[in-house]
Predict the 3D structure of the following.
Amino acid sequence: MKKPSRSQFFTLLLAAALLLGGCDGKRITKANVAEVSEGMSRKQVESILGPPTSVDSTNLLILKKVTYVYQQGGESVTIVFTNDKVASKESSLHD
C-alpha cells in the first residue's frame, strides 16, 4: 500500500477537523438564546442550543442544580437549571 503524501495527509487532517468541529450541532446566537425561557426542561434547551460544552451538577437533599455552559470562541452562555427547569441564563454573546 502506498504511503499518503504530506499534502494528502494534511488535507485529510483538515477535513477531519472540520467534520469534528461541526459535531456540536448548532451555532449559539443571541436569537436562539432568547428562545430559552424560565421553566424550560433540559431537553427543550438542548433542542434549541444543542448539547452544552460543559455540565456541572450539584445534588442537595431537596434541590438538584445543573449548570450548562456553552462556549463559543471567547463568548459563553450559562444556563442554570433547578430541579430540571431553567432558573436563570446569562450570556456574553456579541452580535
User: Anything to note?
Assistant: Residues 13-24 have pLDDT under 50 and may be disordered.
